[in-house]
Amino acid sequence: MSDDVGEIDEIAEGFVRDLTESVREMTVRFLGPGRSSESVLALARNMLNIFDLTQERMAAMFPPSRPLACAKGCTYCCHLLVFTDAPTVLLMADDLQRTLAPAAQEELTARLAAFEEADYGLSMVPRPACPLLVDDLCQAYDKRPLVCRAQNALDVYQCLRKFEGGRKLVVAHDIPLIVWNAVSDGLSAGLAEAGLGADGTLELSKAMRIALETPDAPGRWLAGDALFAPARWSGAGGEHRMPGYH
Ligand code: SF4
Q: Is pTM, for the whole model, over 0.85?
C-alpha cells in the first residue's frame, strides 16, 4: 500500500526508466569480459550506493505526506521474508567474513542453519527475525539488500499489527519502493545479458548460508555454478519476481 503522492508516477516515469537502463548497463560492464570476483562485489557495492543516493534525492523532491515512522532499533520489517539477488548476497557474505570475529561467524552460521531447518514457510506470524538481526541491529547494515533499504512505513502501529498478523499491508512512502523496483529491474536485465540470470530472486537466509559455507563463492557463481539453486524463490505462482511487502 503506498502513500498517495499522485503525480509521482508520471513525473518519475522517464527518470525511473533511465535508472533501470543505467543499472543494466553497469551490470553488463562489471560482468563483461575480464570479470572477476572483485567485479561482482564492486557491482553490488555500486548498485547499493546508487539506490541510496537516488532514493535520498527523489525523496527530497517528493517527500512523504508525513514523517516516516522508521527508527533505529525498530525491527518489524526484519521479521518478513527477505528476498535479494546473488551479487548482494556475495557482497554481504564477503563483508561479514571480513568484519565478524570467528565466534560471531560461527553463531551466525548456526542461526542460519536453525532458521532453514525450522522452515517457517510463507504465512507464519509473528515470524522470527532474520538471522542477521542481533540485539535489534543488522550485522550487515551497510550492505543490507535493496528490499531492506526500501522498507518504510508512515505508522509504526500498522507495522505492529502486520507483525501480529492482524493486517496485510502498511502505508509506505512510494519513492523507496519505486527506486527499488527500478534498480532491481536493471540488475535482472543486466544479469540475464551477462549470462548470469538463472538465479532470479533469492531468499536471503538460505542464500547467505550457501555464500558463507562455499569456498570462493563469487568465483564459482561467476563460473556458472548453480550454487544458489536451493535458495531460489519461485513464489506461489512460479514467478521470479520480488514480492511486494507493503
Ligand atoms: S538483512 Fe539486516 S536489515 Fe535486512 S532483514 Fe536481515 S537484519 Fe533486517
A: yes
